[in-house]
Amino acid sequence: MRHTRRNIFYHELIGLRIKIIEYPDKSLVGLTGLVIDETQKTLLIETNSGRRVRVLKANGVFQFMLPNKEKVIIRGVQILGRPEDRLKNIVR
Fold first, then answer.
1. Burial grade of 31 (CB within 10 A; 0-12, 13-18, 19 or more)
2. Which homologous superfamily is 8-91 in?
3. The whole model's pTM is what?
4. What is the pLDDT of residues 39-50, one digit of tens each?
5. Which of 10, 44, 51, 64 is 20 to 30 A from 80 in CA distance terms?
6. 74 C-beta neighbours (distance < 10 Å), count
7. Which residues pair with 51 in a beta bridge?
8. Residue spans per domain, the chain
């Protein structure tokens, strides 16, 4: 199944380009990079300079770039939970 705007919640986010649109720590707003790890509550982002930043999903609004170059904005609370649990839900 391809990544689309409608089914991104069920896909693995690791490997997608990301930009932080809103976040309580204003120094992180605008940060761009690649999602290199995901847990139930966090995303680990590697910036273009190689810096790694872990952010809480629930606190932010993120823009993901899908493999087809489409940009999707998602509130972090929509992607809370372990990635494997989100993937299991699509099978049910």
1. buried
2. Ribonuclease P/MRP, subunit p29 (2.30.30.210)
3. 0.84
4. 999 999 999 999
5. 51
6. 19
7. none
8. 8-91
